[in-house]
Amino acid sequence: MIKKAQLPLQTLNLIVGFAVWVIISSLLPYMREDIAIPADKVAIITAIPVVLGSVLRIPVGYYTNIFGARIVFLISFILLLVPVYFISEATSYSALIIGGLFLGIGGSVFSVGVTSLPKYYPKERHGLVNGIYGLGNMGTAVSTFAAPLVADRFGWSATVKFYLVLLLVFAALNFLFGDRKETKVKTSLSVQIKGVYKNEKLWLFSLLYFITFGSFVAFTVYLPNFLVTNFDLTKVDAGMRTAGFIALATFMRPVGGWLADRFNALYLLIGVFAAFTGAAIVLAFSPTIALYTFGSLAIAVSAGTGNGVIFKLVPQYFNKQAGIVNGIVSMMGGLGGFFPPLLLSAIHSMTGQYSIGFMLLSQIALASLILVIWMVYQNKLSLSSEVFKKTNQGILVTDAKGIITAVNPAFTALTGFEEDEAIGKKPNILRTDRQQADFYQKMWKSIKQTGMWQGEIWNRRKNGEVYLQWLNISAIKDETGEDIRYVGTFSELAESRRKSG
């Protein structure tokens, strides 16, 4: 019963954590009525909570493996009581900055579930499970939509205090229903980091999540104030539109995970970043609220789907280091939400418009698209290399002149010739006198006419032993039909020792 409760409990935990994380951005229009906040500091004050919420994701993911999700969620919610109360009593810009920094603890709890929940489910369901957990992003929509409605009636300070009750309730729920017997991993943090930091896929996933989750966070914190100041919408209307963006992106996250469980995740990311690039271009040139809405919703679909797909890939490539890798990747996603609002604000202060910033976003998305295509290509090369190295059949490759250019480990095991002893030589280093010259003439005639030959042939090992093998030779042609290399695959026939003896 307790194990089955972990997915819904941890998803609700994430909703609460993210709801607290965006308190300031959700209520900023109301706070500005009571607290003097310079216009050029608005982007900073909304981005500050993202910093700690991003950086803490590495140790939070690590300690989840050490102590379990129950303890980490419980401690996080208790610690959040302090900055939430501090913000509710804030009377200055600096107080909001200090309190906002520690609100980041709410964003850091994302690493808990993506590290803990895969332990309860088979690998083929990890995409969907992480996607469902990602519905916790809805917490930002809850705050963005509900907080202004409550603040209209009770004021922003009382609204912030309401979150104290919410945190206490969920701290108690985790104490009572958290899994005390969750599987723990005791590998040290330094050992885990050393095991992954040189892996290029870690940094590629980090970049991709920097774009997808970063855009989700950035739009969440920047849209309410942007819509009010640039399209003259009411605060409640801006909050509802932002909540719509969050809801759509959040809903698409489990859809992305579900799709990644069934289709090639990298191909899905190609579609994600192609759509993201187009949507960012629309935002760069959108003169009306209608076009801006279309572009923003397209970003929501792309970002949400991408978030789900990426966290299917992490445990697929880093099963044993999932905690630390989840922390690093999710940290980069959080930081992706920190920089865009600052960049957009800086560009707007210099140029008076946001178009250049959105065009830059489209170019970054385009670069990510190219990197994903490159990764697909690299995976195909890696697969070919793995098959070449691990197949039990001997393989040798020659150029058009018959000079050996590559052999696999099975070639060495069967013939006794090491790779450096074979490369640069011709296959006649294996020849015996068991076949006459006309045998080889017929072989090459078949290769020239049909592109292949197969059959039994006697060959010699390095130690002089003669053995019978089954040999396949295929000609590899270029686009003009000319032979550019030959590939031979062979295996020893069982009766060779009896016949040679």
From TrEMBL:
Membrane topology qualifier: Multi-pass membrane protein
GO molecular function: nitrate transmembrane transporter activity
Keywords, ordered alphabetically: Membrane, Nitrate assimilation, Transmembrane, Transmembrane helix, Transport
Transmembrane spans: 12-30, 42-60, 67-87, 93-115, 127-150, 156-177, 202-222, 242-259, 266-285, 291-311, 323-344, 356-377
Record flagged with keyword Metal-binding: no
Record's subcellular location: Cell membrane
Residues of the Major facilitator superfamily (MFS) profile domain: 5-380
InterPro entries, alphabetized: MFS, MFS_dom, MFS_trans_sf, NO3_transporter, PAS, PAS-like_dom_sf
CDD domains named among the record's database cross-references: MFS_NRT2_like, PAS
GO terms under cellular component: plasma membrane
PROSITE patterns documented for this protein: MFS, PAS
GO biological process, one term: nitrate assimilation
Pfam families cross-referenced by the UniProt entry: MFS_1, PAS_9
Keyword Ribonucleoprotein tagged: no
All residue ranges annotated as the PAS domain in the record: 380-425
Family statement drawn from the similarity comment of this UniProt entry: Belongs to the major facilitator superfamily. Nitrate/nitrite porter (TC 2.A.1.8) family.
Protein name in UniProt: MFS transporter
Annotated source species: Paenibacillus faecis
